[in-house]
Specification:
Elements: E1 7-8, E2 12-20, E3 24-31, E4 36-43, H1 45-48, H2 51-64, E5 75-81, E6 84-90, E7 94-96, H3 97-104, H4 110-129, E8 142-145, E9 150-152, E10 167-168, E11 171-172, H5 181-184, H6 191-207, H7 217-226, H8 232-235, H9 241-250, H10 262-274, H11 303-321, H12 323-360, E12 374-378, E13 381-386, E14 391-396, E15 399-401
Antiparallel strand pairs: 1-2, 2-3, 3-4, 4-6, 5-6, 7-8, 8-9, 10-11, 12-13, 13-14, 14-15
Length: about 425
């Protein structure tokens, strides 16, 4: 279909076709709103009939649009015009890494290759931190600008295709030459899958060929899963030891033996430029240790309830073992508790009785005016006569306060 001259979304004017791939065709276009040139990737007709695929395609394209990095081709827009589903991207002037490898017809300089790998790893680091996996890292998706800057394109788009599908509609989806073993078998793919693919790209840059090749995509996929690659340094003895170690670690079949993050790989790549013959890459294998017997964990020993139960059992065991001592300690505690209770009750009674006497004793005092001082003593309370003031005085313990004059209202007989 010739789309030259067509205006998409009343904004993007298609100028010319600049490339094509398994899923889409790429056009150069001009944005009349921002007055700039862009690249537009339009899905092939055979994919637009799959509604689920189109939905995933749009979601992943929108996710990729959220990434900003100097080594990632920026995504500006995603949309649909009629039956055309498209992605608007940054227009990068340059060549794909695959074109450069083909033109050189052999290994590329190792320092240049490591620098390109560093830029790709940096792009992956940013994408992975944003929880976006590329799933189709290959030289075709890496553009080298005229200034030597590597830019990774098609982030997130490959996820729209089912991981278990190698071909669809007779067209290869992704390049199986760069698939990780878990991707080839249709298993779970994550950041370490991208690291494997980057290892394949490095292998091809430095040897001029891919680690696995065959007549059919399925045969290539089987080799990724079953065969070990020839060491890159064997295919090209001019490769430094450190660079070879980085490549071979990235190509491990077991994802747990590869670099666990793009950041870790990036650190080794930068170090390799300074120490090309260094032996710093960690290629530790699993230790084949003999089978060990591990004691079974009982259900009643699990959780906080079990801990409390353990403590309770220890206390019961102590009581059973020291019955006499436990009995004596129990009696002492009982006596102390009883004594404390008794004393408390006694003190309460005494306080109440004192308060009662202070209120009721005065009316029962008998006044004897003939006595010079003390009239009568009743429970330490006295009523007397003061000859100096000729008034009654009230007090306690032989001390009289005649300033507070109290005249009894009643006089009771003895």
């Amino acid at each position: 279909m010739d789309l030259k001259g067509r205006l998409l979304a009343n904004r993007y004017e298609i100028l010319e076709k600049i490339g094509s791939g398994g899923m889409a065709t790429v056009y150069k276009a001009k944005c009349h709103v921002l007055n700039r040139y862009v690249a537009i990737k339009i899905l092939r007709d055979e994919f637009t009939t799959d509604e689920e695929f189109v939905k995933r395609f749009e979601v992943e394209a929108q996710s990729a649009a959220s990434i900003t990095h100097p080594n990632i081709v920026s995504v500006y827009d995603v949309g649909v015009d009629g039956n055309l589903h498209y992605i608007v991207m940054e227009l990068v002037k340059g060549k794909t890494l695959k074109d450069i490898i083909v033109e050189e017809k052999g290994p590329l300089p190792w320092k240049w290759s490591v620098n390109i790998a560093i830029q790709i790893a940096s792009a992956l680091e940013t994408a992975h931190k944003n929880h976006i996996i590329h799933r189709d890292i290959k030289p075709h998706n890496i553009i080298i600008t005229e200034d030597g800057v590597a830019k990774v394109t098609d982030f997130g788009i490959a996820k729209a295709v089912s991981n278990s599908t190698i071909t669809a509609f007779g067209t290869t989806i992704g390049s199986v030459h760069y698939f990780s073993p878990e991707h080839a078998r249709g298993g779970f793919t994550d950041e370490k899958s991208d690291i494997y693919s980057l290892g394949v790209v490095m292998y091809e840059m430095l040897t001029g060929r891919v680690p696995f090749d065959a007549d059919t995509p399925v045969s290539v996929a089987l080799k990724h899963m079953q065969e070990e690659p020839i060491a890159a340094i064997v295919a090209n003895p001019n490769i430094p030891i450190a660079v070879n170690d980085i490549i071979m670690k990235s190509l491990k079949k077991d994802p747990n033996l590869r670099y666990q993050s793009a950041t870790a790989m990036l650190i080794d790549l930068k170090r390799a430029l300074k120490e090309p013959q260094g032996n710093f890459v960690d290629n530790n294998e699993y230790v084949d240790a003999p089978t060990q017997r591990i004691s079974t964990i009982q259900d009643d020993n699990r959780g906080p309830k079990a801990t409390a139960k353990k403590k309770e059992n220890k206390f019961v065991a102590f009581v059973k073992k020291h019955k006499v001592l436990s009995t004596i300690v129990g009696l002492i505690l009982l006596f102390v508790l009883s004594l404390g209770t008794t004393l408390g009750i006694a003190i309460a009674i005494i306080l109440w009785w004192s308060n009662f006497l202070s209120k009721v004793a005065e009316p029962y005092l008998v006044v004897l005016n003939s006595l010079p001082k003390v009239a009568l003593r009743t429970n330490n309370y006295y009523l007397g006569w003061s000859r100096n003031t000729s008034n009654y005085c009230y007090g306690s313990s032989n001390f009289f306060d005649c300033n507070n004059i109290r005249k009894p209202k009643w006089l009771f007989k003895n």
